[in-house]
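Sequence only, no structure available. Ideas?
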Amino acid sequence: MVPVLRFLSATLLCVALITGCQNSPVSDAEPTTKAPTAVADQSAVFFPGDLADYGMTLTRTDRDHLAELYALRQIDPCGFLDGQTLSGHPDFSRTYGSATAVEPGGVGPIWPLNWGSCRVALPGSTVDLGLRLLPGEKQFSDDFYQPDPTRPGVWTSDAPGWRCQVRVELPLTALSGAPASMRNPTLLIGAMAANGGLDLDDTSLCALSDELAGRLATVVRDEGVPAYPNSPSAPERFLTADPCAAATELGAATLSWWEPAPAAQYPTSWRHANVCDLRATTDQRGPGAVVKYGLVIWSDTVLDVPWGDTATRTEQDGVELFTLADHSCLVVARLNTAAPAIAKVGANAPDMVAPTPVVVVSVSGNSGQCQADAQTIAVAAAKRAL
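Reply:
I predicted one. Tokens follow.
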């Protein structure tokens, strides 16, 4: 078993809607398991059957949750825009959403980096349009939304700050093989802030978000949920990579399925497909590692962390590593070769900054080998995603 050292997570409270908690998924209500399936049965795409056990003895709950995470990883958020136009916006650019920091303050250790999102830039607009995949975890804002009686699959809100963020339900629970415990994910469409979060103040994209939501709900009903291809490109391999495969390097004994209350300080649950919380022993409070795949906008401040560690750059087996180990055990692997492309539509499509793929590994425990352990896990996770 790889020895590990306790990870010191950020301790800032998540108190502001615009900066922290608002980024939590807001998938509403109970699962609509009776929703109609897509015209083409996508059961084998999202729920192919037996999955890897990573050398662990898995419980039924483990298998159900892993099946849910696998399904969520197959959803292509930018795929919703394939063949689509944006009303009143003949020119636009798009790429996958990204974060501006690997460890923002005020969030828990399993906070995802970029929420499985697609970012759309519009000429002359001060904000971007975001299509964000929200897993079926309950959040404080659930009560703000109600189904649109005239547009099946669309959920809208009249609450201040939320009325321009429109949801489209993705009926995966209707597919064969979906776990009974799963709740439908949703696609949240609305203004996106520069840091990858929600912009709850903007109203300029209200009409576009609402109109697009109606069209995409029809696409989902008639054609199915967009998924990554069976023969993925390098960026697509990265975006669908399984972080739980790091159980091999950790020598993990079990998986942790954190299920907080919506009002908790850190309300993010386990339902994020690019994050895995592994425990080295059967003690859920014992040593372990959190492994994340995600996209960031690389900058001089992207590695700044609330607890003040500074990053040291090294390379192992051709993988570029940044290690923060003064007061914690966090390693970031940068994978420039898997960067997603920027798609442009129209002659006046604006430029965008290409996102950078990263693997973030934080280990916890009582070992003095945490830095080496985190690096080993990060290198292996990076290679699996290439």
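Residues 1-38 have pLDDT under 50 and may be disordered.
Hope that gets you unstuck.
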